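Protocol step 4 of 6: structure prediction from sequence.
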Amino acid sequence: MGQCGITSSKTVLVFLNLIFWAAAGILCYIGAYVFISYDDYDHFFEDVYTLIPAVVIIAVGTLLFIIGLIGCCATIRESSCGLATFAAILLLVFVTECVVVVLGYIYRAKVEDQVNHSIQKVYNEYSGINSDAPSRAIDYVQKQLHCCGIHNYSDWRNTRWFKEAGNNSVPVSCCQPNISNCTGTLTRPGDLYQEGCEALVVKKLKEIMMYVIWAALTFASIQMLGMLCACVVLCRRGHDPAYELLVTTNSYA
């Protein structure tokens, strides 16, 4: 009976190690996705520490690959030292992912203040020139999020670019894609996106941060199961004579 329990725990442990390798790739992908996505919106927030959760999640993903390798070797070779190391590293990563979740919620709450603080400045720096970074950022956001202006298209009236252009038009990135020959003129407001970009940028950045939070929570749960299985194998190995006899027999075989 004890041997069956040990075998089941070992089987689950080996399976979890395979999951850890898959998780390593997924976490690195999520971290990279967050970096790339935030790069598209980096003009709308100034706190570089917002990316800390993404950095940590990539580091955890790299560490998970190593953990999976240690866990597989320790399980196959029946190494008490290896399994103890495996459980200890899992505990460290578990704590780290809990920290990622906390940081994710903290920086997710700060996103709105960051965007509110910087979006007016970015719109005032708009020049309409593609080589200009703020201009590219605004045109990209307006096209991708289907928005125009900060709260709506009328906000463009207060920008330096609008006053200098003097043609009563907003950038063509405000034009709805199903409207042909749209020039951005305010005399045809029906051609333009009606929703402002501020709320949509905040929503998008919060969604991206939630990916990190949910990924950390999911894999933290898996790691808790891994720690439990490793502890079961270690405890059974120390207290079950049948298991010790099995290990000794396998060692001499």
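Step 5 (inspection) to follow. The two ends are 23 Å apart (CA to CA).
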